[in-house]
Structures are given as structure tokens and as C-alpha cells.
Design brief:
Layout lengths: L1 H30 L7 H41 L8 H10 L5
Amino acid sequence: MKRAAFGFLWFLVIWFGTLVIGGAVVGSAAGSGMEATSMSEAFSKGQEAGAAAGAEFGRKYGGVIFLGALVISIGGTILGILPGTKSRKKDSADELTQESPE
């Protein structure tokens, strides 16, 4: 049960993290070239352009990112390569093979 919970947590981290980072990169690129007469006007124009570009990124690549995060989290959980998803059999076998430091 613990492995499944960590697998789901990794899915959420990968999915939302990729969407946030991708949206931030696309949004900052779209909002960086705004020309304005004042700082507040530049901020508002940049914010509007960035929000639109970030939303478009989410619509365009959201499904692919969702499926990729799902595949990575399921595969990583099954293989035990994601932190917190190592199987108990491996843990107990490692403990038995280690010598006690006496």
C-alpha cells in the first residue's frame, strides 16, 4: 500500500511539475517581448501574454504530459527506482546480507 501511495505521489509531482515548468517557460518567453510606456502596463501586457501562452501549452501538451507521467510513475514504481517505491523484499534481503558493525 505504501508503494502505491508513493507511486501516486510521484505521478502528481511529475505531472504538475512538468505542466508548471513548461507553462512557465512558454509564458515567460511570450511575455518578455512586450513593449509598453510604463512598468505597470508592461507587467499587465506580459502577464496576459504569458497566461495565454501557458494555457495554450496546457491544452496542447496536457494529454501527452499526463500519459508520460503515468507511464513513468507506474514503471518507476514497479521497478522500484523512484524514491519510496523500493520493494520490501529487497529491503529485507539487503538487511540480512549486511554484517553488523561490532
